[in-house]
Amino acid sequence: MVSRHLNVLIVEDSEDDVLLLKRHLRQGGYLIHCGWVDTAAALNQALSEESWDVVISDYSLPSFTAIDALFMLQKKGLDIPFIIVSGAIGEEIAVSAMKAGAHDYVMKDNLARLGPAIERELREAAMRRDRYEAEEALKESERENREISREFRALLDNIPDSLTLLDSSMQVVWSNLSTAKLLNCNPDELANHHCEKLWTDCSARGDDCPVRKSFISCQVEKAVIKANDDRTWGVRAIPISNRHGQVVSVIKMASDITRQIQLREEASRAGQLASLGELAAGVAHEINNPINGIINYAQILADQFSEDAENQEIVQEIIDEGERIANIAKNLLDFAKARPEFKKPVSAEDILAASLALTKSQLNRDGIKLIIDMNPGLPPVLAHLQQVQQVILNLISNARYALNQKYSAADPEKIFHIESELCSTPGGRLCACLFWTRELVLPRRYCPRLWIRSIPPNRVAPAPASA
C-alpha cells in the first residue's frame, strides 16, 4: 500500500483519544502531520498558521463544542472537510451538525468508517476547489471579455467611417456611433431594422447592393454610391463566415469620399491648366518673334509713306493690330508664368482688362454683347494675380459657353454683364466683382450673381446675400 500524506487537525480534550485517532490513521495508510488543540483560541491560531487537509473534532469539549469549531472554520472561509468523532452523540444532534455544515460524523466505537469518510470528503473537497477555480477562471475570463468588448466598442465608435454588421436577412445586428450620427439616432435604436429602410437615399439597392452581393459571392464587394444629398460614399462589404464556410453576416463599411473625389478632380484640372499654361507660353513665344518683325517692317513702311495719307492709314492699322497681337502674346506669357507664393496689391481693373484682352475677340465673334460697369474708385486688392486672373478667365469662359448653348446666333438677350462695387463689412472693405448673365441655369441656381471677394488669410468670407 502506498502511504499518503495527510495534514490533520484534531480538536479533542482527551490525549488518549488523540493517540487512538493517530494510530488508526497510520494503520489506514496515512503519513500524518498532526495538530492537536483543545480550546477555541488554540484552534483559531492553528487555522491561521497552517494549512490542513481535514479537521477531526470531538463533539463536546469543556470550553466549546464541535459546532463552535465548525462556525470558526466557516467564518474564516475555509473549505476543509470537518468530521465529528464522538463517543456519545444522538441522531438528532448528528443531523443538526450536518445541517450546520459538518461533512460527516463517526462514532468512536466504529472508527473503521473514518478512513473511507476522509477519502470521500477529500475527493469532494478537491472537486469543490476545482469547481470554484473553474468558476473564478470563468468569471475572470468574462471580466476580461467585457473589458476587451468595451475597448473594442470604444475603438469602433471612434472610427469616423460608418460600420454596420448585417445578418443574412439584411437586418442590423450592430452599428458604431458614426452610423448612428449619420442616421441621427442612437446605436441601440438601429438593431433589428432592415438595412434599406434605414438608408432610404442610397442609390445601390436590390441586386446592386454590395452587401447582398457579398452574401452571394462570399467575397469582399466594393461600390461607389451617390446619395441624395450629393455626397459620395465608398462602400466595402466584408463577409464573415462560420466554421463551415457559410457567410452568416456581413460588415458594411461606408466612407465619405466626396472630398477625395473633389480633390482628384481639382488635381486633374490643375494638371490640365498647367499643361495649357505651358502650351500658351510656347504659342506666345512663337507668335512674339514674327509679330515683332511685322511691326518693325510696318514702321519702315510708315516712314516710307509719310507723305501718302491713304497708305499711311493702312500701315498704321497694321501696326495697331500687330501691337494688339503682341499684347495678347504678352498676356499669355504673363498668365503662364509660375505663380508667386506671396500676394501683392493688384488692380481689379487691370486684372479684368488683361483677361478680356485674351477673350474679347472670342466674345465679339460669338455675338455676345459685353457690358462693363467698373467703379473707378476701387482700391488695390491684395491677391495672387495669376490665380484671380484664372478665376476670371474661367468665369468668362463659362458664361460664353452658356450663352452659346442658349443662343446659337446673335440675340438681343445674349448679354454678359460685368460690374464692380465696394462693400463695407465688419472685417473691412471688400472689392466685389460681379459676373452675370440673363435667365441661365448657373445664375438661377447660385443666385443671379457670382461674387469674387478678397479676404485675409485664415478668414472665411461671408456668404453673399441673394440678389
From TrEMBL:
It is an enzyme of class 2 (transferase). The modification 4-aspartylphosphate is found at residue 58. The keyword Phosphoprotein applies. It catalyses: ATP + protein L-histidine = ADP + protein N-phospho-L-histidine. Residues 218-269 form the PAC domain. Keywords: ATP-binding, Coiled coil, Kinase, Nucleotide-binding, Phosphoprotein, Transferase, Two-component regulatory system. Residues 124-158 form a coiled coil. Its EC number is 2.7.13.3. GO terms for molecular function: ATP binding; phosphorelay sensor kinase activity. Residues 7-123 form the Response regulatory domain. Residues 282-399 form the Histidine kinase domain. Pfam families: HisKA, PAS_4, Response_reg. InterPro entries: CheY-like_superfamily, HATPase_C_sf, His_kinase_dom, HisK_dim/P_dom, HisK_dim/P_sf, PAS-assoc_C, PAS-like_dom_sf, PAS_4. PANTHER family: PEROXIDE STRESS-ACTIVATED HISTIDINE KINASE MAK3, SENSOR HISTIDINE KINASE. This is histidine kinase. It comes from Syntrophotalea acetylenivorans.
